[in-house]
Specification:
The chain has about 600 residues and is an alpha+beta fold. It is built from 16 helices and 20 strands. The strands form 4 sheets. Strands 3, 4, 15, 16, 17, 18, 19 and 20 form an 8-stranded mixed beta sheet that branches. Strands 8-6-7-11-12-13 form a 6-stranded antiparallel beta sheet. A hairpin with a 6-residue loop joins strand 19 and strand 20. The chain is globular, with a radius of gyration of 28 Å. The two termini are about 50 Å apart.
């Protein structure tokens, strides 16, 4: 964060009015400080404005054809980087608007403090104002200031009161404890002082007849929406106040060699041409822009698009496009794509290792694939509040702008990884066990209950993805990431999982989540060499047999948020949230190594590890 210049106070020459500026990394505009999130700049708090207010004149354009079509946009834009010579930037608006003065304890709207121009301080005390620690939000993404007046007057308010008593609000901290009980709100009208204790209860605001007013302060001039969702009190810096909804895709052939990016501005024209007209169009294009383009390569792109459309049509359900996208990636990860002629434009290089390993076969793994080069595009589609995006959860997606734009903010990651494919016949045979089915059914029922609670209509709640295959692959990915972070020197947050468990798929990709020195120098690919992988896998399974929280962990009937886990805790298989696709849900290490009472339920129990 770039702090603004220090403020001057007191008598003497007036301080120069500097513009307040803060800076974050571009990737954080997708994952941490995206549209609708709150960001602190020194002692002030702001909410990131909608994309229709961004200045993206110099922001680089990103193309990922398959993801663009699914999200219904023409391109992606890297969030602008604001520098001294750039006019680009992301706009923010002050939020929350209620502030307090630490000296005089006054609590009111920021306009009531009579601050000097260009400053955010109390006009009487010349003390920097403190933004409200509390906000209210609903599951539809609306957010507003905490109703301090109604909270303080809840036991003294006359029926039909409009919310004004003529007094001035005060906020102070007793200092006795660090709890909400020590945060005290009062009014000069003479009501008893009340604490903030209990403000975070689900029923706290509905009991005060506080309704969501449908405000969207991140969107300029946005009209208030009609909303029937009950508001909830949140900490301004809480992760529940903003959860990104990010969609991602890997660049795979034929879209990964750079040709699709070059043709992106002309793709609509090419799609509408007859095949016989394409060579002439390409000749005109090469004369205008230079470089040769093969008509056969363009035909291959058009055919791939038609094939992808037919794949989506065959996939029923709301998320069919995303499932088809994963299925295409799975096919290419299994078949590979060798680096030919040293093509530097190729963004997907996936090859089998030069050697085999009988140890991996005995463990139930097919030959791994070394993904020596990959590119992933992550686009911010929308965001949510209050409730996190669990697997298949039906949550409301708050919009990024009032206008319909043909682009979304996105980032791209260049890295490497290892793809593992498990023996499908062995998985099917293992999953037939009644004990295994019972454990997974318990997780599935808990997750299904959670999905129904979060759905606007419980009857249309999506199905839980929990199956023996999916839980096995997910837990295996976590144990390997933890093992590589211990043995290979990679921080767990620098690695990421990508699961392929729907239908007949049985694979997982572990790859670098960043393109810095923690993941683009061949170190992850080296972990996929069969001999080294067999040793790492055996070590990971050995670690999974014992957790420092055992026997409580292994005997757990339910754990994790929503009770969607069984034998899984922070001491064994949980990962940083950025590394997991499912928010650390649907995990059970007993499916890997069994339990002391029933070792046979472990998929790898039959192997000598």
């Amino acid at each position: 964060m770039t702090p603004p210049p220090a403020r001057r106070r007191g008598t003497g020459a007036p301080a120069r009015s500097y513009p307040r500026r803060g800076s974050v990394r571009r990737a954080q505009m997708i994952t941490t400080y995206g549209v609708g999130s709150m960001i602190a700049v020194e002692d002030e708090s702001f909410i990131v404005a909608g994309t229709d207010s961004w200045n993206i004149g110099e922001a680089p354009t990103i193309h990922e054809h398959r993801l663009q079509r699914i999200l219904g946009v023409r391109s992606f834009r890297l969030p602008p980087a604001s520098t001294d010579t750039s006019k680009d930037g992301v706009r923010v608006r002050r939020f929350p608007l209620w502030h307090s003065c630490p000296t005089c304890s006054s609590l009111q709207h920021v306009r009531g403090f009579n601050s000097p121009p260009g400053k955010n301080e109390c006009g009487d005390c010349q003390e920097a104002l403190v933004p409200s620690r509390f906000v209210v939000a609903c599951t539809h993404g609306h957010i507003d200031d905490f109703p301090y007046w109604k909270w303080a007057h809840r036991d003294n308010r006359a029926e039909g009161s409009s919310g004004h008593c003529g007094g001035e609000m005060r906020l102070r901290t007793s200092g006795r404890t660090a709890s909400l009980r020590s945060i005290l709100v009062s009014c000069t009208c003479g009501i008893p002082e009340v604490s903030m204790e209990g403000a975070f209860r689900r029923s706290a605001l509905p009991k005060l007849k506080v309704r969501c007013e449908g405000k969207r302060p991140w969107l300029k001039d946005a009209p208030a929406e009609s909303c029937s969702e009950p508001p909830r009190t949140l900490q301004r810096g809480s992760s529940a106040a903003w959860q990104p909804i990010v969609k991602s895709a890997l660049s795979i052939p034929p879209w990964s060699d750079g040709l699709a990016d070059r043709l992106a501005p002309h793709w609509d024209d090419l799609r509408n041409l007859e095949r016989s007209e394409i060579p002439l169009f390409l000749k005109i294009l090469t004369v205008r822009e230079g470089g040769d383009i093969s008509p056969e390569a363009v035909h291959a792109l058009l055919d791939a698009e038609l094939h992808e459309d037919s794949g989506v049509d065959q996939e029923p359900g709301r998320d069919s496009a995303y499932r088809a996208l994963r299925n295409q990636e799975y096919i290419h990860l299994r078949s590979g794509n060798a680096e030919r002629d040293g093509n530097r434009e190729e963004q997907f290089v996936c090859e089998p290792p030069a050697t085999d390993s009988e140890d991996l076969t005995r463990l139930g793994l097919a030959r791994p694939m070394l993904v020596k080069r990959l590119r992933e595009v992550r686009a911010l589609k929308a965001f949510s509040r209050v409730e996190s995006q669990e697997a298949n959860a039906d949550i409301h997606e708050a919009q990024l702008s009032l206008k319909r734009l043909d682009w979304l903010p996105a980032m791209e990651v260049q890295g490497e990884g290892v793809f593992l494919h498990l023996d499908e016949e062995r998985i099917d045979s293992w999953a037939r066990s009644a004990a295994i089915a019972a454990r997974v059914e318990r997780m599935r029922n808990n997750h299904q209950r959670l999905l129904r609670e979060r759905a606007s209509d419980p009857a249309t709640a999506p199905e839980s993805p929990a199956t023996p295959r999916m839980v096995l692959l997910h837990t295996l990915a976590h144990t390997l990431i933890n093992e590589w972070s211990l043995d290979g020197g990679y921080p767990a947050a620098a690695l990421r999982e990508r699961l392929y468990s729907d239908g007949t798929m049985a694979g997982l990709l572990i790859y670098t989540a960043t393109s810095d020195s923690a993941g683009s120098l061949g170190g992850v690919v080296a972990q996929g060499e069969p001999d080294r992988l067999a040793v790492a896998l055996r070590s990971a399974l050995h670690r999974a047999e014992w957790c420092s929280a055992d026997p409580l962990c292994i005997e757990s009937e339910a754990s994790g948020a929503g009770s969607v886990n069984l034998a899984a805790c922070h001491a064994c298989v949980l990962l940083p949230e950025t590394s997991c696709e499912l928010n650390n849900g649907l995990l059970d290490r007993a499916l890997l190594v069994g339990t002391p009472e029933d070792p046979s339920i472990g998929f790898f129990q039959g192997a000598d590890h």
